[in-house]
C-alpha cells in the first residue's frame, strides 16, 4: 500500500468527520460512481421488468434487495482513486464479476440487513478476508464504531424524502383540471401510473444516495485503519526519509569538515591550557558538603510524603469454602454485562425503527380515515345560509332533477348519451352533498376541491364512489374520452345505494 500517494489528508478525525470526508469524495467523483451504480442496476432492472411488468411492487422490492450487488464496483473504484489511480468506468466493468463475486450469497442473505454494510464491505472486498479471520478483523475495526449504523438510518430517510419530493414535483406539474387523483391517493393507493412514478422516483433516489453512502462507509474504514495502524506517522517518517536522502551529499561534505575541525581542536586544546585550570578542580570529599548546603536551600523545594490506596487484586478464596456460588454469580453477571453492552446499539436502532413505523402507520390511518374527525368539526353551513345554484356550469337546483337520477341516467346510456348520463349523476351527487349533508362548496371550487371536501367529510365508501364518478366525468367533459358502457352502468347502479332520492 503506497500511503504517500493518498489523495486525502491523513489526520485524526472523529467518525462524523470521516463521514463528511466521504461525502466530499462522493461530490468530487460523483459522475463515475453514479455511472458504475447504474451500470449494475439498470441491466438487472430491465431483466426483472420482463418478469414482473405487471407486479411493480415486487419489481421495486427485488431491485432494492439487490443493493449489495451494485455497491462493490463503487468501493473498488474508490479504493484505487484515493491512491491516485482513477480507473475508467469501462475498465471496472470488464472485471465486474470478480469484484462482485466475493461472499455475494452471504451479502444478499444473512448480511443483507447489517446496518454497518458500508463499513464492513472493504474487509471482504479489499482485504479478501472470510470466516473467523473476517470476524476477528471486524471485531477490532468495529470497536466503539456506531457511526456506520447511523449512516444507514440517515440514508434510508434521505431516500424516502427525495422520493416523496420527486413524486410531489411531478404531481404539481400536472394541471389542476387534469388531475384525476388526489395527492394522498397517489401515495397510498397509487394505481398504475402512481406505481410507475414511485418506481422511477425510487430508482433515481437510490442512484443519487448510493455514491455518498459507499464513499462515507469507505472513509470510515480508512479513518479507522489510519487510527489503528498510525498511517499519519508512517507518512511523516517516509517524507523525512526522502528529505534526508535528498540532503545526504551535502551532509557528507559537512561531516568531513566537522571531523577535520574536531581533530584540530583536540590537538590545540592541550597546547593552550594553563596550570590555573587545575587549581579550580574540587575533590569528591570537599564537594559533598557544598552539595548538601545547596540542596538545603528553599529554592530546591521541600520533602513531602503522601499516602494512597492501591488495588492489589482479590484475595484468593479457600478452595474448601462455600464461596464457589459467589464466583459463579460474578461470572454470570459479567457475561450479562458484556451481552448488554453488545446489544445496546442494536436496541437503539430497533427502537428508532419501531417508532418510525408506528408514526408512519398512524399517519396512514389518519389520511385513510379522515371521516373520523368530521363529527368534531363545526358544521360548514348554518341553517338558512344560501346554497350555490350552479357549479362548473351545472345546475344544482333540486327541482331540476328527476325523481330517480340513476334510472334516468340508465335510459340515457341506452340511447348512447354518456355525457348527459354522467352529468346527471354528477349533478345529483353535488345536490345531495349541498342539500342533505350541508357541505359548503364555494362557487369558485374545482372538481378536485369538491373531491377533497367529500373525502374529508364523508365515509370511505362514498368518497371512493365520488372519486370514480369525478374521474369519468373529467375524462369525458375535458378530455372528450368516451368511457365504456359497463363502468357507467355500474356507477348508475351504485348511485342509488350511496345517495338514494334527492329531496328539496
UniProtKB/TrEMBL annotation:
Looking at the UniProt entry, the stretches that span the membrane are: 34-66, 147-174, 196-222, 255-273, 349-367
Q: What is the top-level taxon of the source organism?
A: Bacteria
**What keywords are annotated for this sequence in UniProt?**
Membrane, Transmembrane, Transmembrane helix
The protein's name: DUF4129 domain-containing protein
